[in-house]
């Protein structure tokens, strides 16, 4: 064997060693990249699961708040209906209930009621429903008894609206805290 052949074998062996080293290092790099990709994917999945869990908690909380407000509304409506029956029984016997509210006061109340109704409802063609006239008050626009009949439903509506607003505030606090 000649010196030149020894050199060739040595260079080829050296090149083969370098190539094998690069190949093995490439496998290690690929494994590192795959491991980093898996860790990043796991972190993304954990973040998504946390967001989904938070949203599920908020939905559950909002549904609970809405259920409580609905139950409260049902309860106060039933109580109001009972009170109205009692009021009607008492007022039916009282002759003062048949007296007419002065026409200018009755007109202002009716106009104000219609304005509130119009602001709360979508535009409706035609006139609003005329006020009901009981057989007792044919000459009046509004009797004192009818005015008293309005009081409890109005207070009930205000109480219900306040309850709903409190529920909205509670839901906003829940959302802000999470």
Task: Report on this structure.
It is built from three helices and no strands. The chain is mainly α. Residues 131-137 have low confidence and may be disordered. Helix 1 (3-93) runs antiparallel to helix 3 (144-177).
Structural class: mainly alpha
Taking pLDDT < 50 over at least 5 consecutive residues as the criterion, the unreliable ranges are 131-137
Strand content: under 5%
Beta strand count: 0
Question: What share of residues is helical?
Answer: over 70%
Distance between the termini: 81 Å
- Work out the helix count: 3
Mean pLDDT: 82
H/E element order? HHH
Shape: rod-shaped
The major sheet is characterized as:
none
Provide the gyration radius in Å.
40 Å
Features:
rod-shaped, 178 residues, 0% strand, mainly alpha, 3 helices
List the helices and strands and how they pair.
Elements: H1 3-93, H2 103-120, H3 144-177
Summarize it:
This protein is 80% helix and 0% strand. It is mainly α and 178 residues long.
């Amino acid at each position: 064997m000649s010196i030149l052949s020894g050199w060739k074998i040595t260079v080829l062996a050296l090149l083969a060693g370098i190539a094998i080293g690069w190949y093995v290092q490439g496998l290690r790099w690929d494994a590192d990249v795959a491991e980093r990709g898996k860790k990043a994917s796991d972190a993304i999945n954990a973040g998504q699961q946390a967001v989904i869990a938070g949203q599920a908690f908020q939905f559950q909380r909002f549904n609970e708040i809405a259920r409580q407000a609905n139950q409260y509304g049902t309860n106060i409506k039933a109580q109001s209906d009972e009170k109205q029956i009692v009021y009607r029984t008492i007022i039916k016997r009282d002759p003062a209930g048949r007296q007419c509210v002065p026409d200018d006061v009755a007109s202002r109340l009716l106009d104000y009621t219609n304005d509130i109704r119009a602001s709360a409802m979508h535009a409706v063609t035609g006139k609003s429903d005329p006020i009901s006239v009981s057989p007792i008050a044919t000459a009046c626009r509004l009797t004192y008894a009818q005015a008293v009949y309005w009081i409890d439903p109005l207070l009930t509506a205000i109480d219900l609206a306040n309850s709903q607003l409190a529920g909205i505030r509670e839901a906003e606090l829940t959302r802000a805290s999470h």
